[in-house]
Amino acid sequence: MTSINTKSASSFDVARAYEMLYLARRADEELGDAVKQGRVPLPVHLSIGQEAISVGACLALDKKDIVFGTYRGHALYLSKGGSLKKMFAELYGKVTGCAKGKGGSMHLVDIGAGIMGMSAIVGTGIPNATGYALGLQYQKKMNVVVNFFGDGATEEGAFHESLNFAALKKLPIIYICENNEYAISTHRSRRQPDGGIAARAKSYGIPTEIIRNNDSIAVYEAVKKAREFILSKNSGPVFLECLTYRWRQHLGPHEDFGPGGRDRKEVEPWIRNDEMIRIGKMLTEKVRNNIEGRVERSIRSATMYAEKSPTPQQSDLWTDVFA
Amino acid sequence: MTMKKRIISYTEAIREATAQEMRRDSAVVVLGQGVDYDRGLLGTTKGLVNEFGPQRVFDTPLSEDGMTGISIGAALSGLRPIHTHVRMDFLTLTMNQLVNIAAKARYMFGGVVRVPLVIRTLIGDGWGAQHSQGLHSWFAHIPGIKIVAPSTPHDAKGCLIQAIRDNNPVIFIEHFKLYEQKGEVAEKLYVVPFGKAVVRRRGGDVTLVGISYMNVECLRAAEILKKSGVNCEVIDPVSLAPLDMGTIVRSVRKTGKLIVVDAAWTSCGVSAEISAGVAEALGTKKHLKIERIGFATVPSPNAPALEKHFYPGAEKIARVAFKIVRGTSAKLTFVGNQGDVSNGMTEKV
After folding, report:
1. Hey, which of A232, A270, B144, B262 would disulfide with B294, CB 3.0 to 4.6 Å?
2. Which chain A residues are closer than 8 Å to B28 by Cβ?
3. What is the pTM assigned to this prediction?
């Protein structure tokens, strides 16, 4: 366990990090309950247990940096500054949702916050993120793309095609693999031979780092360093493999431990070392309570907003097919 | 004083449209295998890299799926990529990106993004089972993608400029045999709007709808049939999605007989879509005769002796049309030289 001295962790904003971790966790707990109660329809993939990766990374980014995520994108969306109430409205299927109710949980988007629409087919977003980085390079913009995906995506051909091209063209992109070791219930050892995920990126000549223990400070430091390196030295892509763990089932609000699912013993150390609690302990109780109170109020307000918002009309079905 | 007609080839029309748009709009880039070669992609991108530089005209690794996704990402960032896939057969490798992202991004993200991407690709013929397919019906099935298949140099230039300026994904379909066609093309920039079919030849006995290069063969067939007293109306859909059914229906309302000729298989093809649309519009109003002509329903063979039975041509179209007009026992005898299209629309080199 790294010993924490909040002042020496460079410019890591502990209070801000705790607020983001607490928001992501509580929003997904509330949404999980809403699914159980039938207020929010499936499909919903919760970020619970993995929030630290998005939080650490987004703390190191500029508002104009761009992120691409996946169907498990709630924590990323919120950490990058996506609108909380529009996310709730989207999951409730309302026309005030961030995608007007047409995308749902798997396709969150907030262009103003630099959150490109998230895609649900494993690996598909990686070429899109890479192409966006090509666009930034062409337009000489001083921003990076950060592309989040899971361990399963590193088996898709598109992952390899994208890294090959990004390395070739020295694109300004940080690839972040949230390795929770599972594709639904299939452990990585049944899908990949020995060698590890970071080695795959290394094979394209891309500098890599592995970050363990859901350490949001380490993720923050790594992304900050990568971003500076990319923008000041035109170094090309950087790859971060971040080890983490999913606390709930792949799809839906319940747990999946037991026969036919995962072993509960696996999740226990991750729960014991909950990054949200670890970061929270660095603050005084007063500051922590203030933050928590603020977040709880926002979530209640977002829930009311979603519940009171209108549903789309039949005529809305036909809009936005073409620009 | 009459202006001298400016006649250029289909190949040159594509090259000119690309170069003119690239001069006008710095967001336009061209990528694909061989686009920066001396000859460019079969002549259509010749010289572009010299004028616009390697950041705007570049070759790609052999990663059809990844590179298509990358083009989409570049389009999302504000560029207007023209991505070439020399054979439409290769689009099978890009289906996920084109169908699940490009076609759907605007809708599933509630209208806040757009994908201004052009995919240029060639269909038919003569290159065997994996290099000759016309797969446009697959894409015509999907809401969110536009498809255009111009058959003349004039339309090639105008449609490509429209495609580049369109803020949606457009599949621009070319045909090997169209490259050598020559026709009148204005030097200035102009667009051919999508969703408008062109009546290339007027006649009252039978409607021939010819897709892509098949339009040229339909015009040849019309010349053959004229000598036997059958007058064809030849329609070029130009745009396959959106598809101008109105023009086709108006014609078949007049002739009562429709033959759709596609550079593709007929099963579940664009020819089936057109036939169904006409039947829906006119089926209860009059007795219709409808036939579809396309590739033989086998994979494309290599030997020339087999190819001639695989690909449709003017003679087959003329025979089928003659039967449909004069009755199934009627037999068409060919009179004189049937090879040329002499209605002034296009001239073969």
Report:
1. B262
2. none
3. 0.94
